[in-house]
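Hey, quick one: can you model this chain's 3D structure?
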Amino acid sequence: MSRWKTLAVVVASGLTLLLAAALLVPYFVSLDSVQARIVTELSQQLGGVVKIEAVRLSFLPLPHVVLTDVSVAIPDSFGATFESVSVYPRLAALVRGEFQPVRASLTARDVTIRLPRANGTDGASIAASPAMTDSPAQLQAAAAGALAALSSAAAARAPGLVVVVESGSVHLFDSHARAVLFTDVTLHMQLPPDRLRLDLTCRSSLWDHLTLHAAVEPVSFKGDARIEVSHLRPHLLAAQFLPEQGLQVEDSDASLNARVTFDESAVLQAELDGSLPLLTLRRGDESLVINGESVNASLRIADSTTTFSLHTLQLAQPRLLLSGEVSFDAGAPLARVQLEARDVDVAAARTVTTFFAAGAEVAGEIFGVLNGGKVPRVQLQAQGPSFADLMSLNALTIDGALVDGQVRVPQTGIPKAALELSAVSGDVAVANGVLRGERLIARYGTARVHDGTLRLGLAGPAPEIHVDATVEADAAEVPDLLKRLVANAALTRELDHISHVEGTATAKLALSGTTHDVAVTVDVAPLSLSARLEGMKEPLRIEGGNVAYASGGIAATDIQVTNGGSTLSHVSARLDWSNARASIAATAGPSRVVLAEVFPFASRWLRDVPWNPEAVSGTVMVDSLSIAGPADAPSDWRVAMAGAVEQLAIDSPPLREHLAL
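Sure thing. Here's the predicted structure for all 661 residues.
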């Protein structure tokens, strides 16, 4: 900053010297000698080369001096050529015998500015300069010092001087010799003592048109500025100054209006309004197109804190209304993000988030569960020592609502049991690395899920999982649902003997444990369904009671079963496969069993019986019945029955005759 401060003093002093000599000296000496002296002294003071083709006086419309074909060249930093420089003195001061320039009009041809390299680097950008790592207060102090030096020089020799530059073009080179051309540059600047006022307009390859109006008080450094940029081309700006970044900006268009103020409480405050009709981004082989409608934001930079407040960001693609605040306190240090989004499409948000946060844990885990849907409102908060820390699941809090969502609840230990839910609606939150859902409704196939709660860990080798829900299903889907939820070969074999299931079933579903070891319980009640069992001619009807599955077994309680002329009442049964050998236990109250109807189904359990019947008929009138034993060895069952048998007939080849009782 000291170099530019010195340059400002030298320029102001040199300009004053040039104006005084040009107006007064011709009365005493030749203009040629004055011209030579001006060229020599300015060249020495600027550390460069100054050339002036001619110096002449003009009296119309007011007395002034004209310098023609002026050029200034400072090695490695600045160069300019001017067609003419016209300097007007303050007439009242001349009458008193004083020289005070009041206006300088410059008709520029070309100006070249080269930004300095960072100290100790070769070709590094100015953005890497140590000066740019100063705090905002230090930068403010440096800028105020340079302005104060300029103000002091102007107040002493040219108070209130107005400098006008017309028809200029400026080439701005960065430290890598990349150039930006500014054309149709028009500048109107008034020097202190009161305020430094600046009005600038120009065109550029980076935008169609830029307008700047600024005013700053040199002592207090209070001021404000208004900037309007139409059809800003961010892709050219990024290519010019950020050419080697992993995220590339392609064909884009934006417009911006900004009002910047300086005051004592904050180094800088800015209000921003604009539009972003097109923004195209590329990362490797992936591209992202964003179509924006409007943006309204503000920026506040204090000594150690920078706060960016996004009042509204309206996007057309992806459809999104976003607001919030991003801040960083370098003194703490503490980075904080608070955002609220509305009308969010989950699929589009997944595309955008994974594009910007490629490889980030938080994006992969959340969108691995949440696959689609709409979010009317969602709030996001995160804080940590740095912005990089905000991408940690433990630093992130999300609270929102989901409508018509697609959710996949993984169970790594049982791959086929991953719950693929559709039409999911409810309240969803993420905190401390855990996804929670409340008041959830959904569909699982044609089954309807309601009153659901979800707790799912998003990190770690074995994340926790807890699901509670009520499921209303078409009974035809129950066997398939049980097969998917319960990876048990014995249960699957039994379910394979059931077909043509009809009716409805309401079940309480619960999953608890980890995604590698989850316990599933299903409680179905009341029952009202029918099904065909393998070998039976008539459908089996089940009414009342309940059927429950828990880890290791399935049990039925107090149900009534009918099949043709057979009726079983108050049936309770349990198939238990928690041990190495599955077992079965069942009881029934007063019942009537037509043996010819049930034998085709039960015969598969009698294949190992020594007398192995081929047919059984008759009617059993049961007062009470109990069965217990290994499920795969009916010959070892313990059967206790009270009742009567009518017209029992058994056809068994090992008995070598038809036995009738």
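One thing worth noting: The first strand starts at residue 49 and ends at 58.
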